[in-house]
Design brief:
This protein is of the alpha/beta class and 254 residues long. It has a single domain, classed as Aldolase class I (TIM Barrel), CATH 3.20.20.70. It has twelve helices and eight strands. Helix 3 links the parallel strand 3 and strand 4. The chain binds 1,3-dihydroxyacetonephosphate (13P). 1,3-dihydroxyacetonephosphate binds next to strand 8. The site of 1,3-dihydroxyacetonephosphate (13P) has 14 residues, from strand 8.
């Protein structure tokens, strides 16, 4: 059984006080959802978010994590630093990190493994660009990203990972992948996991869809057999919209 997981990626939005305010709006609405609900504020909002979440079932995630324990890595944040703030999840390899900040498949793997070592669940993002999709390279690109992300990871570690399939052309564009397109690629990612780790891990690992997921399309996406949740950008910044996505997902235990 895979418990759906809905995560809000707030990206570079929300000051600490705004984080606390949004959580204050979400808390009573989300209540005891049947799926895992995670919010990922920017680093500067994590402490305020944690305080605002006290006693809530909503869990806290970060938007990145560095692979080193500590040292001369200006601007980076370690897993131990996040852990002490109460962070349980960390997005790694988001396409915006890959595109604008030069993150590589190798670095994404190192970040994911550092998170696991600190008992933080990595949400590993993979996804093709529009050019790659149109050139028929979706599976080649997504497959390579997924295999690289799992490099040197044991089955016990891999099963704890959450994968987020986010086609780059669907992020922030209002252009969602159709539920069939999302299902096809997510089933393909599950097949890669099966190839690497066998059937039990493939059946247990959770794979989200991300890219313009919103209250209008969430139910249809969540009804697909391999889609175990969503990584929500824009729609996670409005309590009412995020709540609706959570509501659809709670019905989607696979
Ligand atoms: P949007 O939901 O705004 O398209 O963003 C998706 C995303 O990148 C989540 O990580």
């Amino acid at each position: 059984m895979r418990k759906p997981i809905i995560a809000g990626n707030w990206k570079m939005n929300m000051t600490p006080s705004e984080c606390a305010k949004l959580i204050g709006e979400l808390r009573p609405l989300v209540g005891h959802a049947a799926c895992d609900v995670v919010v990922c504020p920017p680093f500067t909002g994590l402490a305020a978010a944690k305080a605002a979440l006290a006693g809530s079932t909503i869990r806290l995630g970060a938007q990145n994590v560095h692979w080193a324990e500590k040292g001369a890595y200006t601007g980076e944040v370690s897993a131990a630093m996040l852990k002490e703030l109460g962070v349980e999840f960390a997005i790694v390899g988001h396409s915006e990190r890959r595109q604008y900040f030069g993150e590589t498949d190798e670095g994404v793997n190192k970040r994911a493994r550092a998170a696991l070592a600190a008992d933080i669940t990595p949400i590993v993002c993979v996804g093709e660009s529009l050019d790659q999709r149109e050139a028929g390279e979706t599976e080649a690109r997504v497959g390579a990203q997924a295999k690289a992300a799992f490099k040197d990871m044991s089955a016990q570690e891999a099963v704890r990972v959450v994968v987020a399939y986010e086609p780059v052309w669907a992020i922030g564009t209002g252009r969602t992948a159709t539920s069939e397109q999302a299902e096809e690629t997510i089933a393909f990612i599950r097949a890669i996991v099966r190839e690497l780790y066998g059937e039990a891990v493939a059946q247990a690992i959770r794979i989200q869809y991300g890219g313009s997921m919103n209250p209008k399309n969430a139910a249809e996406l969540m009804a697909m057999p391999d889609i175990d949740g969503g990584l929500i950008g824009g729609a996670s910044l409005k309590a009412a919209d995020f709540l609706q996505v959570v509501h659809y997902s709670a019905e989607g235990t696979k």
